[in-house]
């Protein structure tokens, strides 16, 4: 008598393989986006604009602030794009300045997050959390 094999195990294995490949692709894409954020070059003049709004700031101060903003962007990405607290007011100021470079900011968001990251003021976030 000939042995018959059920198609069910094959379908389960195929589904598991596809799920695994999809999961791996998602992880790979997130790591690529994180690397993009880490190595992104700020638009020309951005840090100078921050320094102009904060008298006494030197380039080393702006570099620290830009590092904080990068950490915020990375935390947002790694959280699965959930709301994340801003590390400081001055990092938020840099984000505001970056948004004014509309084309650069839009292109950054598409590569870093797959879509536009809207700025939501902390007041709105705290009201949303209370509900």
Q: Layout of helices and strands, plus pairs?
A:
Layout: H1 7-39, H2 46-53, H3 59-78, H4 89-100, H5 102-113, H6 122-130
Account of the 3D structure:
The protein is mostly helical and 131 residues long. The chain has one domain (7-130). 72% of the residues lie in helices and 0% in strands. It has six helices and no strands. It has helices at residues 7-39, 46-53, 59-78, 89-100, 102-113, 122-130. Helix 1 (7-39) runs antiparallel to helix 5 (102-113) and helix 2 packs across helix 4. The longest helix is centred in the N-terminal third of the chain and has 33 residues, at 7-39. It starts with 6 loop residues before the first helix and ends with a helix. 9% of the residues are buried.
Main attributes of the structure:
elongated, 131 residues, single chain, mainly alpha, 6 helices
Brief digest:
With 131 residues, the protein is an all-alpha fold. The protein contains 6 helices and no strands.
Report, as a whole number of angstroms, the end-to-end distance.
67 Å
Mean pLDDT: 87
Helix content: over 70%
- Which structural class do the helices and strands define? mainly alpha
How many strand segments? Answer: 0
Rg, Å, rounded? 22 Å
- Strand residue percentage: under 5%
String of helices and strands:
HHHHHH
How many domains comprise the coordinates? 1
Number of helices: 6
Main pleated-sheet profile: none
- Unreliable stretches, pLDDT < 50, 5 or more residues? none
Cα shape: elongated
């Amino acid at each position: 008598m000939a042995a018959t094999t059920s198609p069910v195990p094959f379908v389960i294995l195929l589904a598991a393989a596809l799920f695994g490949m999809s999961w791996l692709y998602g992880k790979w894409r997130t790591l690529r986006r994180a690397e993009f954020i880490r190595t992104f070059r700020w638009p020309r003049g951005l840090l100078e604009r921050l320094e102009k709004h904060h008298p006494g700031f030197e380039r080393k101060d702006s570099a620290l602030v830009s590092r904080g903003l990068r950490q915020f962007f990375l935390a947002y990405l790694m959280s699965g794009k959930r709301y994340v607290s801003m590390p400081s007011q001055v990092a938020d100021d840099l984000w505001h300045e970056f948004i004014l470079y509309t084309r650069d900011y839009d292109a950054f968001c598409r590569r870093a997050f797959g879509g536009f990251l809207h700025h939501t003021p902390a007041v709105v976030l705290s009201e949303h959390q209370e509900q």
